[in-house]
Each structure stands twice: as structure tokens, then as C-alpha cells.
Amino acid sequence: MANKYDVIVVGSGSAGLYGAMNLPSDMKVLVLSKKELTLCNSSLAQGGIAGVYKPVDDDTTEKHKEDTFIAGKQKNNPETVDILVKQAAHEIDTLIKVGVDFDRNETGELDRTLEGGHSRRRIFHHADATGAEIVKKLLAKVQTLPNVTIKDNSVMCGLKKTSTGFSINVVRNDVYTAYHCHYLILATGGIGRIYAFTTNSSIATGDGIAFAHNIGAEISHLSWIQFHPTAFNDHKTRECFLVSESVRGEGAYLLNNKKERFMQKYDKRLELAPRDVVSHAIMEESRATNSDNFYIDIRYKGEEYLKHRFPMIYENLLERGYDMSKDCIPIFPCQHYLMGGIKVDKNSETTIKNMYACGECSCTGVHGGNRLASNSLLEALVFSRQAALDIAKKKDSAPKDFEEADFSFSPDAKHIPTGIKTAVRGILQRSYFVEKHLDEAVSGLEKIKELEKTILEGNYIPAEDYVESMAAVVCAKIILQEVVNGETP
């Protein structure tokens, strides 16, 4: 039974780990991490996890649902949003039980912060490194489970549907290994790295989405992309450090190039408007002032408060030459999150039977056209558990054997040419960054099709560079087709 598992989970962020943790203990499970175990977008999540848990300030799941729909432009899926808000208390309670150290106030009660788009303080946090704390504690828990094997630095470079489930090809330290399973959970993260500027980690290259598409899974709303308004802007780095939503939630101001507040011109909610509203406001103000110099300012809160409430952001900004207790911090919108992805039902099952998708690579419909702050970690947990529960119901009817697909490739295959990912990033940045530019999207789509032809007609080694180039082209093609067809929110 070597290399044969009941369930394979591709991805070791919050969705992958929580899904593995909730699977029945008598199922043999393999979790694959593309890079080191803690490198994922979940670990970069600063603000927190939203949810109505032991509510205060007359908060209710209905209010959480209403805020989610308002932020999502009423394009959300009512059924999955209902599941999201009602399961939040269970998932937060589970996190506490596995040791997640949420911040508490001076009376020892769980502290709740406010973020843009929320009508109540319902975001639970671990200072400004909530995602990292959650991944750390989930990983520690999963590593104790005798039925779960975890492999790091393992890149999925092939996926095939078989008569008994799925086969995947994995390259680790230049060695290729095929694994086989009855049930597959894709928790491979988003697409940020196919943009020129993103807050996402290096694993967010759309691999899982592209492989799912290539074997026939339906992809939904891939152009529903969130651009975060307050990424640190030094005009140099491609991976942009995020100045968390919670900084605005705790009272920061947004300033234009004249160091003047401007949100009052665009929305009555001012700095606490949803992310897409603020990002569009910055773009409009940029044209009005003929400048892309913008700032976030929370100096008035003082050094002691800022060091305690935002220790990671404070230190990261110091390393970049800015003291947030004394300086206005340069910011600008940046690609941040994907609301669309592999289409799934309420149990996270894709349109391919027994293949599931969870977390940012999936499209549950809960976010609609714009994600409400801190609903992403919640979605990852709620719907990975939904997948685990559904698999548990099916496990007794699983096949007893495994069909093993072949992944051999030509001995004269060569490495894919460099430059494809860079070309894709430039095309997307020009075609669809906060605002859509139809002429650029039309011409960009033709260029993407040319790159696709290069990939399809080439004889390439299925190594990491090939996988990421292929994924960039597949995802960019779907995004630009939606932009050209007017399907963006």
C-alpha cells in the first residue's frame, strides 16, 4: 500500500491542515506542502478570523451575514454564507481547544477588533499575526495524528482522474513519485504570484486551479479578484508587505499626496468602507492629484499602543525605515485575494466526483464580488471541515483497490523557457488592476493564447518552473476571458 492513501490533501495552509485534522482517524491521509510547511497565504493573514462567538454588542450571525452580503455586492451564495456564519462559533472554539492564543482584554475576555465592512467588533486575533498562530497550532496538532503523513517541499506536477479516484505526480528534491487516492482535497491557495505586485507568498501560483481545470473541473469567477488598498508601497518589491485591515479598524486615517484625508469624497464609511471601495477611491484620487503617493497614518495612537497591538507590522516597517508611531506609511492597492476559483458545492466537492477544493483555490460563493475582511480564514476552516465530513460519509463505499495512472515523460524533454511568468504578470497588471482596461485585456488575451500554444506544443520536463508557467497561462486566460466578456463584479 505504499504511495496509496484514502485521502490526499494538496496544501498545508489552514484549509489543508484543518481538513486533515477533521478526517476520520481510520483513514490514511497524505498532506503535501509545496514548500516549507508554514509557507502559505494563511500564515500571512494578519487581521484575524471573523465570527459571532459568545457575542457582545448585540452581535448576531444575521448581522455577520448582512455585512458579508454588503461587502460582496449582494453576489454571495446565500446557502454557503449561512453555513459560514453559523459554523463560525464551532471553528473558533476548536481553535481555542487546539491552543490558538487569541488576544484577551484586561479582564481576561477574548478581545475583538473592528475591520472595514464590519458593523460590530467580531474579529478574533493574535496581535497582528493571527494566521501564523493558527497555522502553527494546527500543524502541531496534525503532526500528532498517526494516520496523517506530511511531506514538505513537494510540488504537484501532474494530476489524473482514475477509475478508483486520483493519481498525482509529485517532484521532491528532483525525484518524481506517483501517489494514488480515493479522495482528493485541493487546498493550494490563490493566484497572487501571476500578478506583478501582490501580498501573496511564493506558493500562490494557481497550480491547483490549473490542474483542476485541465482535468475538466468547472472554474467559477476567476476574475473576481480583491485588491487590498493598504499594501506597503516602496515602489520596488513585487511581494508587498500588507499593512493590515485592522490598522484602519483601530482608527488609522488614509492620506493623499498632500497628507490630507480624502475618503469623505467617496464613501460615508470613510476609512472603514470595504476594501474594493477604498481601492477604487485611491485610484480615483490618484488621477485627481496626478500622484500615486498615498499614506496610512495612525501616529496619534502612540508608540506604546502600536508596539503592543501591531508588533509584527511595527517591526517590519522599522526594517523598511518607517516608525508607524512617528511616520505616515506609504501604501497603494495591491493584488491580495481571489474570491473565485474551483467551483464547489456546500460540501466543498468540485464538479468532479470525490475531488474537493478548500480555501482560496475554491469558489464557495461566500465572498461574492468582494471578500469581507477576516472571512477568509473562517471560510478555510468551515469548508475544509465540510469536505472532511462529506468524505467521512462516503468512506465505507470507497473502492478496495487503486488504479495507478502513468506520468512518464520523454527522456529528451527540456526545461521550459524562462520569461513566461514575467510576461503574464505584465499583461494582467496592464489589463486588470483594481480597474478593468478592456483594450489591454483584448490584446493581452491574444498574447496569452500565444503563450498557451508554446506550452502545449513544447516537450517540457514537468518541473516546478513548468507547473508555475502553465498555471499562470491557464489562470490568466480564464481571467481575461471573463474580463472581455464583462463577467467581473
Structure keywords:
489 residues, alpha/beta, seven-stranded mixed beta sheet, four-stranded antiparallel beta sheet
Which regions have little confidence, pLDDT < 50, spanning 5+ residues? none
What is the global morphology? globular
The total of beta strands comes to 19
Mean pLDDT comes to 94
Number of helical segments with 4 or more residues: 14
Q: The biggest beta sheet, please?
A: 7 strands, mixed
Portion of residues within helices: 25-40%
The structural class is alpha/beta
Q: Termini distance?
A: 47 Å
Secondary structure elements and pairings:
Layout: E1 4-10, H1 14-22, E2 29-32, H2 41-44, E3 49-50, H3 61-71, H4 78-97, E4 112-113, E5 123-124, H5 130-142, E6 148-151, E7 155-162, E8 165-172, E9 175-186, H6 207-214, E10 219-220, E11 225-232, H7 245-249, E12 253-255, H8 275-289, E13 294-297, H9 303-309, H10 311-319, E14 329-338, E15 341-343, E16 355-357, E17 362-363, H11 375-394, H12 420-431, E18 432-433, E19 435-436, H13 438-457, H14 464-484
Parallel strand pairs: 1-2, 1-9, 2-6, 9-16, 15-17
Antiparallel strand pairs: 3-5, 4-5, 7-8, 8-9, 10-15, 11-14, 12-13, 13-14, 18-19
Helix pairs in contact: 1-5, 1-11, 3-4, 4-11, 6-14, 9-10, 12-13, 12-14, 13-14
